[in-house]
Structures are given as C-alpha cells and as structure tokens.
Amino acid sequence: MVGLVLVAILLFRVMPFVTRATHGEVTHILERSIQRAIVQCYALEGRYPPTLSYMRDRYGLLYDESNYLVHYEIFASNLMPNVTIIQRGAS
Q: Which helix (H) or strand (E) holds 78?
C-alpha cells in the first residue's frame, strides 16, 4: 500500500514536467509544419505566402488555434517571413 502511495505521489510530481515537454514538442512540430508550407509555396509559386490563411487554404496547414497563437509577419514576397509561435495559457 505504501508503495502505491509513493508511486502516486511520484506521478503527480513528474506530470507537470511531462506536460511541459509535450507542449514544447508540439510547438516544435507546428513550427516545422509552417516552415515546410512556406518553403513549398515559395518553390511552387515563386513567392512566400502572404498570410496564414493562404497556407491553410492552399497548403493544408492546420493547427489548434485555441492553444497556439501564430504571428506571421511578411516584409516582401521575396523575403522569408518571420513566424512566432506562442502557446496560449503558458506560464
């Protein structure tokens, strides 16, 4: 019984670290997906995508907008856009 209690306590102590690591990996995957869509658009069209919705409509980019805020800033159609991903509700 004591062993079970110790395992439960250990799980509760470790869970926040596992959750944080999982969110970090999801953010990294999202970043790679966006970069892939940007490069694919440039390769096919000769210009970078003007907006995130353009990538959603034409290149199938999908992500959970309730959990992630993506700031997409483009300077010119021939310059690589700046992408910032922020996890909503992250401390």
A: none
Output the pTM of the full model.
0.72
Identify any residues that bridge with 69 across adjacent strands, giving them in sequence order: 86
- The domain of 72 spans 2-87
Amino acid at residue number 90: A
Q: 3-state class of 76 per DSSP?
A: coil
Phi, psi of 46 (to 5 degrees): 80, 15
48-61 pLDDT, tens digit per residue, is 999 999 999 999 99
By the 10 Å C-beta count (0-12 exposed, 13-18 middle, 19+ buried), 58 is classed as middle
Residues 48, 81 contacting (CB under 8 angstroms): yes
Domain count, the chain: 1
15 CA to centre of own chain = 21
pLDDT at 10 over 70: no
